[in-house]
Design brief:
Structural class of chain B: alpha+beta
Order of helices and strands of chain A: EEEHHEEEEHHHHHHEHEEE
Number of helices of chain B: 9
Oligomer: heterodimer
Number of strands of chain A: 11
Strand content of chain B: 25-35%
Radius of gyration of chain B: 31 Å
Number of helices of chain A: 9
Distance between the termini of chain B: 114 Å
Number of strands of chain B: 20
Mean pLDDT of chain A: 81
Shape of chain B: flat
Largest interface: A-B, 61 and 70 residues
Shape of chain A: elongated
Mean pLDDT of chain B: 84
Largest sheet of chain B: 9 strands, antiparallel
Low-confidence stretches of chain B: none
Low-confidence stretches of chain A: none
């Protein structure tokens, strides 16, 4: 038997991510609610098994989602008996965390909205179902409603919308209805109820970079696998390094015969839970 | 010999702190200050550098300043800094983003609307955070900032805030990383293995755009399986040639070599880069001092290597048969999930009915009791 010694650094673990009632899993079984099976421990034998799968040229198998791939049971059994040492990541009960920024998809994040400007309105009205509803038409209408000529040069769009909100005549109301009929709800709201142009599905108006901050715990440590000669040959055909958790680097430090290494001298190594 | 991956050693020189952390570090840092320097309580208004914190067997804390891996990656891939996930909304813009060296190497995750399939690609470059490698000691400096204060006390009229900032002089950092040539050589556009990089119908446009950036690119879509993999179901995608991979790796190493991080009063730049080709993972290891190549302008120009081919092309007919098997498994899993959902809904319905029946029975009982009381009251003598 041989011992394969590995080291891992900067394996990101997000301890504060709670499973919300609205969370779904999408896998080959379809779409369904996520069960509350959050690991309290940052590393289990599932993650270590995936490390060994990748080092041996196999694909990693998701822990919570169903997949067409099944894990290699011989690799999983080897990984279950691996010795793992995680360097201290707590001071008392407090986790040693790092603040990082994270991105969210636009359709699933709150958007503060954009300030209304003439250029933004022009972009928003580029494509309308009603071909007559163009930017020129919009400007001529509001100039007529407010009785102001050259409105783009006289005032900014934000102030013009504020003035429009005080109007009550029929021409103004028909403009609002026309905008709503052409799916320009954000603009219709801006000139009737107030507020900024929030995110719409019109690619001409989005440009909010949706970022938030979150806490991550960076784990580092060592892993020892007991391998047969055949398993070692599979490792030799692999790439020698892989990732663990979020962006953690795992690489081989040594490979020795079991009788040349005194496992009893090792401190703080343990077999992980399933 | 054919390379499987490339190991990296990156040395960085800098001055002052380029990467700051949030408030959550404060209690631990305060404990460290008290233990090591008998420091008094820290101000609430404090900016601390990102650091690796170590606990020795006696429980004593120590730290080393670091530059996080995210910060390093932002410096390496500075061309794609402004990208946001909204780029998916416009197809042309999206293809322009992903059909590039940065798109292939850095990876991306672009989810569209809720029911749409996300397009994703795993990053081929993995870089650990750059940890302080010299004996420089950080210190806390008093700084002032002028500007309107958000919270104003009655006694505090001034618009100048005092805050504490962690500072360090000349500092050296060290980072390790790897470039995965096995993953670099294949770009998948198949939902089968949950790594659809883009819509395969747009491949002709993707190819046109990528060819302007990698002139040797001339691949076509096909079915591929991983050599030695147990699950032999083929995946639709394309393979990059050795020439393409050499070009991409050279560009990436150049980006790493010229990466720099600039702040208003701090900077850090890459001062040394070494690589090692991994031919035999058990011999070509990160902590083995042999085989490292110093990267400079000359060595980068002359860099040439063969890539160990991990992906093997499959015949279309075999792929179709195997895909059918996948569809059958998928259908089976879906049916199982639908049965579970149905059973759960049935269970809920039964519970609701039981609860209704119990409520009705209790209401009936209370009505009977009220009636009895009413009758008793009527029967009582005046």
């Amino acid at each position: 038997m041989y011992l394969l010694l590995l080291k891992f650094k900067d394996a990101g673990w997000f301890p504060n991510h709670l499973i919300q009632p609205k969370d779904f899993i999408y896998d080959i079984g379809g779409k369904y609610r996520r069960e509350k099976t959050k690991n309290v421990e940052p590393l289990t034998s599932n993650q270590i098994s995936n490390v060994l799968h990748v080092l041996m040229g196999e694909r990693p198998v998701p822990t919570y989602r169903k997949s067409i791939f099944k894990r290699d049971e011989s690799i999983y059994q080897t990984a279950k008996n691996a010795l793992v040492k995680i360097n201290p990541y707590k001071v008392g009960d407090d986790l040693i965390t790092e603040t990082i920024s994270s991105k969210k998809i636009v359709t699933d994040s709150y958007s503060n909205g954009e300030l209304v400007t003439w250029e933004l309105i022009r972009r928003l009205l580029i494509s309308c179902r009603d071909k007559d509803l163009t930017y020129k038409y919009f400007i001529s209408e509001i100039e007529g409603i407010l009785n102001i000529s050259n409105i783009e040069k006289v005032m900014n769009a934000e102030y013009a919308c504020k003035l429009l909100r005080r109007c009550k005549d029929a021409r103004y109301k028909s403009l609002v209805v026309k905008l709503k009929d052409n799916s320009k709800m954000p603009l219709a709201k801006a000139i009737s109820e107030g507020g900024k142009l929030t995110y719409s599905s019109n690619p001409a108006t989005y440009y909010v970079i949706n970022r938030g901050i979150t806490q991550v715990v960076n784990l580092s440590g060592e892993i020892i696998f007991r391998l047969t000669k055949e398993q070692l040959e599979r490792i030799r055909n692999g790439k020698g390094s892989c990732t663990l958790l979020d962006g953690g680097l795992v690489y081989i430090t040594d490979c020795v015969r079991e009788d040349e290494f005194n496992l009893e001298e090792l401190e703080n190594f343990k077999i992980l839970e399933v | 010999m054919k390379a499987k991956s490339i190991l990296l050693r990156i040395e960085i020189d800098g001055n002052n702190v380029v990467n700051f952390d949030g408030d959550e570090q404060k209690p631990i840092y305060q404990k460290m200050m008290r233990e090591n320097f008998n420091y008094s309580k820290l101000n609430n208004n404090i900016k601390l550098a990102k650091k690796n914190i170590y606990i020795d067997p006696d429980g004593k804390l120590s730290h080393k300043i670091k530059i996080s891996s995210n910060c390093l990656r932002n410096a390496i891939f500075s061309a794609t800094k402004g990208n946001n996930s909204a780029v998916r909304q416009d197809e042309g813009n999206f293809l322009n983003n992903i059909a590039s060296i940065e798109g292939i190497v850095q990876g991306y995750m672009n989810a569209g609307k809720k029911e749409e399939i996300p397009f994703k690609r795993t990053s081929v470059l993995c870089v650990s955070s750059a940890e302080q490698d010299n004996s420089a000691v950080s210190k806390l400096e008093f700084c002032s900032r002028s500007g309107e204060k958000k919270k104003k006390d009655i006694d505090d009229v001034s618009d100048t805030s005092i805050f504490i900032k962690e500072d360090i002089g000349k500092v050296k950092y060290f980072s390790e990383g790897k470039i995965d040539l096995f993953e670099l050589q294949f770009v998948g556009c198949d939902q089968l293995k949950d790594r659809m990089s883009f819509n395969s119908d747009m491949f002709h446009k993707y190819k046109e755009i990528l060819k302007t950036r990698i002139t040797s690119f001339d691949s076509e879509l096909g079915y591929y399986t991983k050599r030695g993999e147990l699950n032999k179901i083929p995946e639709y995608g394309f393979i990059l040639s050795d020439e393409d991979i050499n070009f991409i790796v050279k560009e990436l190493l150049k980006n790493i070599y010229i990466a720099e991080i600039k702040r208003a009063n701090a900077f850090a730049y890459v001062s040394g880069l070494k690589i090692k080709f991994v031919y035999d993972p058990l011999v070509d290891r990160m902590n083995n001092e042999e085989g490292w190549i110093d990267i400079n302008k000359e060595t980068l120009e002359n860099l040439n290597f063969e890539v160990d081919r991990e992906y093997i092309e499959q015949e279309f007919e075999t792929s179709v048969i195997m895909k059918k098997e996948f569809e059958e498994v998928k259908e089976k899993e879906k049916q199982e999930r639908m049965a579970i959902n149905k059973a759960a809904q049935e269970d809920k319905r039964k519970k609701r009915e039981i609860a209704k029946a119990v409520k009705k029975a209790m209401e009936g009982e209370s009505k009977q009791e009220e009636q009895k009381e009413g009758e008793e009251l009527e029967q009582e003598p005046a």
